Predict the 3D structure of the following.
Amino acid sequence: MAATNKIQQSRRDFLKKSAVAGIGTSIVATALPPAEKKEGIKAPPGQKGFSLFRKEHDTIDEVYEIANDYERMDHKNIIFSRWAWDPKYYKPGGRGIAFILKDSGEVPNPTLTEPGYSILEHALHRASWGSHDLGAPFSNAGLHNQGSMNRWEDFIHPHKKEPHKFKSPGEASKIIKRASRFLGADEVGIAPYDERWTFSKVYDVTDVFLKGKSPEEASHEMLEFPFEVKSVIAFTHEMDYDAINAGGLGDSAAGLEYSHMAEVTHKVAVFLNHLGYKAIPAGNDVGLSIPIAAQAGLGEQSRMGTLISEKFGSRVRISKVYTDLELEPDKPRTFGVTEFCIKCKKCAEHCPSDAISLEDLPTLEPTIASISTNRGVKRWYHDNEKCFSQWEKTGTGCGVCLAVCPYNKLDTWVHVLSEMVVSAPVGRDIARQLDDAFGYGDLDPKKVERFWDMND
Amino acid sequence: MEQLLLILISITFCFSLYGFVKVAKSKKVSSRTWVFGILAILLIPFGLAWCITSFAEREPNAGYMGIAFFSGLGFILGILSYQGFHTAKQETKADLKAPSPVKVLVVATLLVVGAGLLPLALALNRLASITSDPDQMISLFSTHVVSDRSLPFTIKKALAYETLYGIYPGTLEARLMQSMFSGVKEKEMIRLLAQVFPGRERQDLLHESLQAGYSWLESSEPYPKLTLTPGQYLQKVDQKAEFIVEWIYQNFDLPPMDSLAAAQFSTGNASNEFGDYMVTPPDSLKTAIIAPAANALRLQLSKAAQIPSTLDVPEELQSQWTVEKAHSVKKTIRLAFGLAKWSWLLPAFLIILGIFLMIRFKLPLLPWTALSLLILGVLGFMITHPLRDVDGTVHDLVTSIGENAPAPALAVVFQVVPQLLISLSKFITPFISVFTLAGVFLLLYAYGEKVIDSIYFLVNRVRHAIFRDQKHAS
């Protein structure tokens, strides 16, 4: 009995002490000014909450070395524009562009008998791209102002004469981010407008494909905004994990997000219009998405040239909205991707067309590149022509690099723990080996069967 | 479901930890036993939880590895911790004699490794028997690769693999031609082959080539004696050029000839470039275009072809392999056949050694033998699983060697390997089934009485319960 009393006594003491301590802490916390945000720990809303090894930087130039003589990319040179004028892909007066002919079934596709490349997957690809093809066609090929959801004229005349006044750019950013996530974006970041990432000139492929002009007659003009752009809102869109991992279905995963990109950017532009601001929705068009996303703190550039998001890894597509609303920009963030890519090289080793650099360190002087390469940034370069040859072969997008990348993981406790190991300098050495040993990124053709057998 | 399982694992973990601490305190075990025990209790459920989450992520391989890596490590630490308990126990009860865990581990390892290797060794033995027999191989290739029925599929498969793994043709025309050839119907392909490479000639070539290879393996000659006549096939293409052009116009979906080219052709300015004829001519030119197109094809063949009229294989090989190298290749092949045929000796030795040690260590013979046979059967079924999933195995094989082998070789693998796997499966499955049945039988024999007693006890309990209910009801 005495013992019980003693326990009860000590419990009462503990509760008393806890209450006093709690009240005391609350008073102190209320009286003191708010503690400064600890850099590198907290993330903006909608992005990954916690990371041990995150660092913030003031400008993109702190993260990537950019050459003084850096020249803006001419849209005519990107691989998709070359379909309309480069004899490697296009033959005037005859059949051209093996990729499109195979994709549309105009010429037989030998791979149709292979798992992952059958008529089922091809039908799913076309369905996934549906909204994009209808609402923002050619946006994937970098051509702006096309289709019902992407027409500039619709977004440069705001619905309100007097723009809504926000208390501060910070408040405006908060509202825009919340609205964007509600409207379907997976992650949102704000970048200051940086002209370097905007295409210098735009080549109109529709002049060749749809209007029957010769490649020389097609429009190739300077890109000019109809208003002064103050901010760029960047979004990431997560691709389906099961589809991206099932070889051959990567194009469906990408196509579905291109459709979402068209929808989300359209909706965010409408939202801005109703607040009285001008906006331009963009997918791959208008400018280079990856540096903009990196500038908006959405991730880091990887060896394969794509963005690695903290939350979704390599499994993301990027879109953006240009606006005249002044927003508080996010800071570029790094979390060890470059350091990990130096050791890993899994994407380069698995690339079916050897298009990704196997060099140890990022460089300003690419050893593998083509005219479609955006030079002048210290990074790993890749050969777009070789990359595209794989698309031509199968008549569908590839995505092997995205699937095998060790950052391509679901956001579960297992990978939060693994990420801690990977982010630590010693962990990087063994992470790739462990990733292989555990069978991640294994392009097993049975995953295609499993994809179709899944019960949602 | 995943969350429920993780909660259950967490609860089990808490109870295990509580139980371990309680028992370890009462036994006063060493600090090493404490550390190993707690790590084992932590790692085993961690591996299980990893496995559950990985399965939920649809990453079964990561799940298996999680079990093997974390839970496996935990299991080993658990055994070491158990040894610590056992030592503490022996100190207090010195009279208790139980087989040492190390001895049990040695016997179990020998039996498991031996049992695991035996089905593989049997498969290798069978494979070597088939592949070293020229008659069986000629029949296999003849039926499944070069026959009229199989060749169109082999060609289409080769084209698909060339597209997936091969070097892509540099020009747009070549890429499109490859694509269009893959779409030709089987009947049409046979019609073309009947003209340029008839079935009889294909069978003769296969017979001659394989026979030369096997004779070389048995002889002391450094190189196989074989003379091929590729010029003969080129000559046939030359002779049948008109037929080939007509066949292309019938089977390829070519773009229409533009008006400028048609006008030029009508005025007698026929091009000598075969590529210029890869268009669909207007109806008025359909007959007239055949002859100049055939001539352009002949011209292109004479320009492009570096193929000699006869090809002496020993001569060709001499330039690539020295006599020593040729002999060494031959020795390696013979050795591989020999090893494959006699590889069953190693698992047999391991199993016999395991049984011998079992007797030597005075382990109970009957249940251990039964267990060994069961392991042999179960492992055999697991290891020979690829033999049952023939399609999946062939696909895995092709994808794994895809980039390193020429596309026609991959197509041959696709056509021939399924037959080999089916043959191996038919050979091995009866062995494994007999081992498994024998294991079950011996296990029942060893523990039969106990099993019957348990069943009898259960039946009695059920009967008693039923009768008691009936009594109450009446």
In short: Residues 407-473 of chain B form the longest helix (67 residues). The longest strand of chain B covers residues 227-228.
